[in-house]
Design goal:
Chain B: Pathway: Cofactor biosynthesis; thiamine diphosphate biosynthesis. The structure holds two protein chains of two kinds. By secondary structure, chain A is of the alpha/beta class. Chain A is built from ten helices and 19 strands. The longest helix of chain B has 21 residues. Classes of the chains: A alpha/beta, B alpha/beta.
């Protein structure tokens, strides 16, 4: 039996795909679908989010986006969702992302981005301000121009994780609601042996779960919590995100913008909800919603769409993205027998979930190489040839003095 | 050796880096390595210094001294509080003092900056204030006990270069503490110019972190700062209206 540690969108997707392939699996998570997947906006926008130095991430995103429609259709069927038309009952929509600019400076940055996208051969259209507002009449009149990435999509991550849990239940896959306190090692002799299961924090679960679960293999998909379980280089990157509610949809596609250098995006849901995101903060395991976070989200969202001030504030949450040093996920063999990694998805967990599950089943080896956890391990017998002189993350306690 | 000395501490690199704007920590790490910097600023607001794997660990890994900065503060009170929290968390009494006047231009507020500088100096800090290119304010901050002055070349992140070289020269002429050109650098020639004007060091971030190839631009900046420093020490020739042959015109 394969044990998936972590019941976010990545872990649940892996469990579902493995189960569909006929493999026995179990998921363990104290509160499935309540972490980063719960906070995420669900943009599937590899093209409009491309930046310098991140072409490998673009390749992963484009490949995973290609998988999304069939992933969504099969998931909807497996979960027994009522026929939801083209959105599969998951609020999946592929109507593109519009990236808009306001001032002269932001417009110049947009032109530079368009040139970069052109060089990469990405299908984007450069629009005038009026063309942008014809597509999205609620946009501020001050919009000067935009870039339309017609192939970008989005989905409601909460519907996806609910559907994944439903599909797993229908397939009879156990989802154990408990916290993993550590990985079980076959620790014969000196050194660390293979991972053979996990030890559960049964006190936290009220003594209703076994003390441990044995497994033939463990897949670590625990997001930011992967670091403390396996010492992998994953750090929390806090994001605050806001959900606004209106009876009438205000936008018909995802809108991104740069307001005086700060990026902001708005994602419309089918039910009229508008998601505004998101801050990026290096605050450790802190999920507090702050005045400054809320202020900046609203300030920038109002610049893009002045009418947002009329909407009801439905929710503000903070989630923790599992960031890696190079922003690429860690997918594949960990280097320790019995332990596979599927973590470090940073801002792309929702987008990359279908690809992650496929990579773990041996598909697309070229892309798998980009995500190999081996890239953060120093080569045997030599100092790390690329990357930092010392590991960016080590399991230590206490704080260090700086020289 | 031609060391940069700030508050008695020696640095062989005259390029001070900032960390804002890098697409990933790995890209930042490689750029810092290519820059050869020994002193790098980190914005302390919205950063938990005890969190593992953050930008602070990148600097620790490279043995680069951390210069906490008060970026994002609008009042002297906030800046003083941020500096104290940074001292407590990082164990350094150095601070880059940055108090901005408005979000649009991010220009430094001279009055709040001076107020905070006085209080931080009295509290035992080594204060490096970010200021406009104002020779009078630079002199007053030096008199108030700042360890260096950091005039801007142009607004933060603008990449407009050094808009008023004359004022920078006036600041350099009068200063008894290091002058560090901070903000506005767009490309390598801007950094070289700062050094040719007599600045003791250059601080930059965006020009590197938002370049298409941050590691290459960092290496370019390193070379430019060294070239500009050498040119300053060598002494440039006077400008002439007409040609002067460098070799005999007749055989």
């Amino acid at each position: 039996m394969e044990l998936i540690v972590g019941g976010g969108i990545v872990g649940l997707s892996i469990a579902w795909r493995l189960s569909r392939a006929g493999r026995p699996v179990t998921v363990v998570d104290p509160a499935p679908a309540s972490g980063a997947s719960h906070a995420a906006a669900g943009m599937l926008a590899p093209v409009s989010e491309v930046t310098y130095t991140e072409e490998p991430l673009l390749r992963l995103g484009v490949a995973s986006l290609r998988r999304w429609p069939s992933f969504a259709a099969e998931l909807a069927a497996d979960a027994g969702l009522p026929p939801g038309g083209p959105s599969y009952g998951l609020d999946f929509r592929a109507d593109g992302t519009l990236d808009v600019a306001f001032g002269t400076d932001d417009l110049a940055a947009l032109d530079e981005l368009a040139a970069f996208m052109g060089k990469l051969g990405l299908p984007v259209e450069r629009l005038t301000g009026r063309e942008c507002r014809r597509l999205e009449p609620m946009l501020a009149p001050s919009v000067r121009g935009g870039l339309l990435a017609p192939g970008d999509a989005w989905v409601d991550p909460r519907r996806v994780t609910s559907a994944l849990l439903a599909a797993l239940e229908r397939r009879g896959v156990p989802v154990v609601r408990a916290r993993v306190s550590r990985l079980l090692r076959a620790s014969q002799g000196s050194g660390e042996g293979a991972v053979v299961g996990v030890e559960l924090d049964d006190a936290a679960a009220g003594g209703t779960v076994p003390a441990e679960i044995q497994a033939d293999g463990v897949v670590l998909a625990a997001g930011v919590w992967s670091a403390e379980l396996a010492g992998v280089p994953v750090r929390p990157v806090k994001g605050q995100i806001m959900r606004l509610r209106s009876a009438e949809p205000r936008l018909s596609r995802c809108v991104r913008g740069t307001v005086h250098g700060t990026p902001v995006y708005l994602v419309p849901r089918g039910d009229g909800e508008l998601v505004v995101g998101a801050t990026q903060e290096e605050m450790g395991f802190d999920t507090r919603v702050t005045a400054g976070g809320v202020y900046e989200l609203l300030r920038d969202a109002r610049e893009l769409v002045p009418g947002v001030t009329e909407l009801e504030v439905a929710e503000v949450v903070a989630g923790l993205r599992p960031g890696t040093p190079d922003n690429l996920p860690l997918i594949g063999p960990s280097g320790t027998p019995g332990l596979t990694l599927a973590t470090g998805h940073h801002r792309g967990g929702v987008l990359l979930a279908p690809l992650t599950a496929a990579l773990l089943q041996g598909e697309e080896p070229e892309l798998a190489a980009l995500c190999s956890p081996a890239r953060h391990r120093p080569a045997a017998g030599s100092a790390a040839s690329r990357g930092p002189a010392v590991p960016l993350y080590e399991k230590t306690s206490g704080s260090e003095e700086l020289g | 050796m031609d060391d940069l000395i700030i508050a008695g501490e020696k640095f062989s690199s005259r390029l001070i880096m900032g960390t804002g704007g890098a697409p990933s920590l790995e890209v930042l790490d490689q750029a810092l390595a290519a820059s050869g910097t020994e002193l790098t600023t980190v914005a302390m607001r919205r950063l938990d210094p005890s969190a593992r794997g953050s930008v602070l660990d990148v600097l620790r890994g490279r043995g680069i001294k951390v210069l906490p900065n008060t970026a994002g503060c609008f009042t002297a009170g906030e800046a003083v509080l941020t500096a104290r929290l940074a001292r407590e968390a990082l164990g350094t009494n150095w601070v880059k003092l940055e108090v901005i006047a408005d979000e649009r231009t991010l220009l430094p507020d001279p009055i709040e900056t001076f107020d905070a500088a006085e209080r931080l100096v009295a509290d035992g800090f080594v204060v490096l204030p970010y200021i406009g290119d104002d020779p009078a304010l630079a002199r007053r901050l030096e008199q108030a006990g700042c360890a260096a002055v950091m005039p801007l070349g142009a607004p933060i992140g603008s990449g407009l270069g050094i808009r008023n070289p004359h004022n920078i020269e006036l600041i350099v002429e009068a200063a008894g503490v290091p002058v560090i050109l901070d903000a506005g650098i767009g490309t390598a020639s801007d950094a070289a110019l700062a050094m040719e004007l007599g600045c003791d060091a250059v601080l930059l971030a965006t020009a590197v972190t938002r370049a298409q190839r941050p590691d290459l631009m960092a290496a370019a900046m390193r070379g430019a700062v060294q070239a500009g420093r050498l040119a300053r020490q060598a002494g440039r020739i006077p400008r002439r209206r007409y040609a002067e042959a460098s070799s005999p015109m007749t055989p």
